[in-house]
Amino acid sequence: MENNLYQAVKNRMIAEMNLSINNHPTYAGQVKAVAKYHMGRERPQTSVILDNVTSSREHLSPDDCVGDLWSIVSVAKVGDCPGHSIEWVWEDSYNITKYVKKEDVTATLDSSRRFVQLAHFPVAQGLQNPDLATSVGQISISLNGVNFTPKSLNNDTGLIDLGFTVKSEYPHEIYPALRESSSFSIEMIPPTILVSYYYRDIAPQGYYYLELVDDSSFNVTPMLYVEEEVVVKDMEGSVTEAFLDHINVLEDYIITLYTQRTSKSVKIYWERNFDYTIEPTTGKITFLNPNSEFIGAPGKPTTLYASYRWIGATMGPIAVRPYCVDDTTIKGAVIVFGSRIHKGDKHCIILRSTRERCAHIKGGHYTMSLDWKVSSRDRMTTDELVDHLTSDLWGNRKEHLRSEGLVVEECIATGETEEAYDEATQAMYFQNTISMQLMTEWNKFIPYVENPKKFKYRLEAVSKLSPSYQEIVKEIGKGMNLITDEYSIEYPKASYPYVL
Q1: Residue 105 to residue 116: CA distance in whole angstroms
Q2: Under CATH, to which class is 2-61+362-446 assigned?
Q3: Domain regions of the chain by residue span
Q4: What is the average pLDDT value for the chain, to the nearest integer?
Q5: How many of the other CB atoms lie within 10 Å of CB of 51?
Q6: DSSP for 247-297, written as a single string
Q7: What is the pLDDT of residues 36-51, one digit of tens each?
Q8: CB burial class (10 A; 0-12, 13-18, 19+) of residue 84?
Q9: Which of 44, 40, 11, 9 is nearest to 385 (CA)?
Q10: In whole angstroms, what separates CA 186 from the centre of its chain?
């Protein structure tokens, strides 16, 4: 749950008020905005104090329903653990994709001088979009400064088909065919291929189990899953075993193996312990029927694909403290800890490769009023500081606060007062009040953690049927008068199907 109420708003606005004070050369370093002064400490001569904060709730709908959240990351509780240590988890949207500008890929030309290889992959669609690229137009490629469109792009491996054979030399410039000087010559230079693109930079997809080993550190154990891994390409009947790319396979979870000749052909699924066996610790697959129709015949090879889950290496212990932000442990996820960290608490952070509907959102708004007391020993200083803070907060800092969910609706000076500093000398404090009204929000995220991989079901219509028409016909045949006797025929009616 993300709740922008007293503590979050007060801390954020005090920091914003101090930034505004530091923009004034006269008061920078001399005046500091605070919440309240300690009774045993001396009051400064010039001060900005947050005197009072009030709030009221704004309902957006009767059931507080906002909608669904689409993201690559979500968090859920584990077992009976309270799940209080993590306040919320958010996707690191500014870093899930990285931009590479004009990468020189000339040295990666293959022997046919037609294909080049990118240094980073998989290739993403663009800024803050982790989905794989679907068009060659989502990358920029040039040959000696001239942009062109390649034939194809393998977004998963970063292999680019240029669509033509790159020559060893090219003209430095393109000149007209006819020249007045017959001695004119064109300079030839070697090719240079530059590519600009975005690539996905997140941790492998899966379930990351986070456990607080004590009040100041935690461990993370990932349970990762692989979908449609190519185990054996162009497999024929001579193949009897294969190895997965990862070890520590979870055999208690769903392990799917199937063969497919082409992308449009039928998938033939394998059954464990009948068509194959697997060693979880090594990832070795042994084929029990190497001559079956599942395996390609000579001259007609097929490809073996696998989808499975495996346990990664445990990370930790990782230091943590209250109100701490961690954006490095799980690349692509920002983890925020609160003040409720306690030993033994567990969380499950779900990371996906693409954005999916991961949580239902309930939320609303708060309308908050903040009263600031600005005081000094002379009237001119008070007025100058109030004018600066009011104009700076409203004119310069309102817009970027809006992007954080803090909408400043009003910021204005509301009244002047005087307070005695020394009764004997009649020295006074001159005070002015800045009234600020802003709107914040609260959101509660209810995660969707279901992830069915494969299921079977059987539908059967179940209902109580009245006597069938065959039985009525039999009664008629026993002597019923079709003209004078009354009778009714009810045909079978199917009820709602039940999943068995």
Answers
A1: 6
A2: alpha beta
A3: 2-61+362-446, 97-200, 217-311, 459-499
A4: 80
A5: 15
A6: SSB-TTS--EEEEESSTTSPPEE--BTTTEEEETTTTEEEES-TTSTTSBB
A7: 765 556 667 787 888 8
A8: middle
A9: 44
A10: 53
